Amino acid sequence: MIKSYQKEKATMKTKYKNLIAWIPQLMIAFILGGAAYGKLSSQATDVFIFQKLQMEPAGRFLIGTLEALTVFLILIPRLSALGASLAIAIMLGALLAHLGPLGFEVQGDGGKHIVMLGLVLISSLILAWIRRSSLPLIGRLFRRSHLE
Amino acid sequence: MDSQLTVNLGKIAKFTNASLPILTLSFLVAGYQYSFYFHFLTVAFFLLTLINFFYRHVQSTHSLLTNFGLIAQGRYLIESIGPELRQYLFTNDVEEEPFNRTERSEVYRKAKGLDATSAFGSQLQFDGSEYKLRHSLYPLDKEALQKFNLHFGEERSLKTGFTLTRPFLISAMSYGALGNHAVRALARGAKKTGLPMNTGEGGYPKYHLMENCDLIFQMGTAKFGVRHEDGSLDPHKLENLSKLPQVKMIEIKLSQGAKPGKGGLLPKEKITEEISQLRGVPMGQDVVSPPHHLECTDAESTVKFIARVQEISGLPVGIKLCFGRESEFFHLVEKMKQLSIHPDYISIDGAEGGTGAAPKSFMDDLGVPLFQALPKVHKILQDLGLRNKLKLLAAGKLINAGSQLMALSLGAQACYTARGFMLALGCIQAMQCNKNTCPVGITTHNSHLQKGLGIENKSERVKNYILGLEDDHYELLSALGKRTFSDLKESDLLFPL
Ligand SMILES: Cc1cc2nc3c(=O)[nH]c(=O)nc-3n(C[C@H](O)[C@H](O)[C@H](O)COP(=O)(O)O)c2cc1C
After folding, report:
1. A7 found inside a domain
2. Chain A residue at shortest CA distance from B47
3. Does residue B67 share a domain with residue B141?
């Protein structure tokens, strides 16, 4: 009796978690999806950014593809922990760009890029926490033994 | 002896731990100085550094990770594929347990209907540690051999008796432990050859019945399929089940070699809605059958329970047990004699028997192995004058004709095998029967995994295995110079030194 009650509680909790996870998932997918589209379709701003980084055009397509892949992963619940890790990595890279050659304002956008970057970074950190037990390399440390 | 070639993993770990942040910094500088592409590495190594920090200073569940950091992951990684590596590459042909590669491939070859000869010589050690059959100087022609026949129920002159025409049967494996594809493939193979199949303690044999083969209905200690809610026998359900034309015999399972003294154990991962219905148990929790039948607490109550089942079912009724204490078995048989009630057969399950799920210590440390139990049982029955009142069956890694004939020499009259038939179905001994992840779809209810187990295709393999085994039996029997299987005696065996 006790066991089945606990089990019910546990499944309730995962259901609830899966639902909550959609908030950061959609947020990341929406922003990164737009970013990927911009890069892959060679929008002027993106070309400008990658010229500054001296990565035009190969780097732009590479990052664009990675972003698209991230969106894909994020939207599949089973893989979204992996997606979150990838998003974190890409955002760290972007941060390095803004700290370096790019500067905080891009073509006088009033820091719009930085805000987006921050939103994605925070969302993916939250998502990574929600799905910590399936993160690569450290996930198993959060998993409770199934023998419990 | 400390040669220069010694690999000091501790030092390597220290070196790695120190290099990670240094490399991160170097890539950071290179990224700004030379090419922004270096920042791919900056980010990757920054994350690795973080993870490494977490391993060494935050988490405390894994000592190896605390002490050595990231490098220690290598151990877990390689360890996790160890079983596969060992099976694919590193274990030799005769060293795996429970069944080594030569034993498995013999079954595979039979199941595929291939030529079953081997080359060059035996791979076994001939050091006197094994049983061997003693052949005759005067082998018999195959025409001179008598066909196998065993009439269950003849001792009680039952009209509903059952005749077995091969010296082996398909042992109990429940629907639950097996998926429905596996059950149906076995049942269809059984139907094609007319071999009876034990249902196992899985409750109402829905999938077995679809294939219309002869069945031995097994009543486990929880009496799935024929129970009241409290676990006691529901006579009406048993009566109805016994009336099914396919059900030829009833088997009361008292204990099982892999877990004697413990009831069944069906992990919750494997309980689908259907299984809970067929068995009458709730979902979402492990189903544990009690260690003994509610009705059977001593010799007398057990014998009376057997009589009750015989009466209700009107069929031959056997009991299955793993031999434990000699005195207890003696008293049980004594009681049978005293009350003049005896089961129609006793099936002895050796401690080496298999299971879908059981605690390791029960598998390893409990119960008497078959070849030690059989002669004892045979002798007790003889001494008490009951040997011709019932049949004796045996099980425990008897997956080929040779070992089955050894069991027959030790007093058995027919052999059960479960894992032999699993191998025939394509079991690769992945040892995951308790996890619902069986990679060949036998002990799983995952429809994706069961897709690989085509019922018709595998039922042919089951059929081939049955016919191949039967062939081998007669080949060996003629080499032993015996006209019938019942002529086999203990003196036809060479015992280990
Ligand atoms: C997957 C699996 C399921 C089994 N389920 C049952 C069962 O339901 N009832 C039972 O009495 N024995 C069960 N057994 C034990 C077998 O019937 C048999 O007694 C034992 O495995 C010895 O035969 P073997 O060595 O030829 O496999 C099971 C064995 C296996 C491998």
Report:
1. no
2. A89
3. no
Are B136 and B72 found together in one domain?
Answer: no
Least confident interval from A16-20, A25-29, B185-189, B255-259: A16-20
Within this chain, do residues B314 and B401 fall inside the same structural domain, yes or no?
yes
Residue nearest to atom 22 of ligand 1 (CA): B353
Q: Number of structural domains, chain A?
A: 1
Rounded (10°) CA dihedral B427, B395, B248, B150: 120
Number of independent structural domains in chain B? 2
CA distance A43 to A54: 16
pLDDT less than 70: residues of chain B: 1-5, 116, 264-266, 270
Of B256, B425, B440, B466, which is best to mutate to test ligand 1, by the most ligand atoms within 8 angstroms of its C-beta?
B256
In sequence order, what DSSP letters do the residues of A30-82 get, joined into one string?
A: HHHHHHHHHHHTT-HHHHHHHHHTT-TTHHHHHHHHHHHHHHHHHTSGGGHHH
pTM of the model: 0.83
B186, B461 Cβ separation under 8 angstroms: no
Within 8 A by CB and 6+ apart from B462, the residues are: B111, B185, B186, B188, B189, B190, B192, B421, B424, B425
What digits encode the pLDDT tens for the residues B474-487?
999 999 999 999 99
What CATH number is associated with residue B312? 3.20.20.70
Looking at the fold, whether B36 and B157 belong to one and the same domain comes out as no
Residues B287 and B404 in one domain: yes
CB A135 within 8 A of CB A81: yes
**Position A14 in a domain:** no
Chain segment A94-146, per-residue pLDDT in tens:
999 999 988 888 888 888 999 999 999 999 999 999 999 899 888 888 876 43
Distance (angstroms) between ligand 1 centre and the Cα of B172 equals 5
Q: Is B488 in the pocket of ligand 1 (CB under 6 A)?
A: no
CA A91, A92, A95, A100 dihedral sign is: negative
The size of chain B, in residues, is 497
Q: How far apart are CA B49 and CA B361, in angstroms?
A: 42
Distance CA B229, CA B312 (A): 19
Residue B365, domain member (yes or no): yes
Structure tokens at B462: 């089951």
Note whether residue A120 is domain-resident: yes
Main-chain phi, psi angles of B132, to 5 degrees: -135, 155
- Domain range for B28: 9-80
A22 within some domain: no
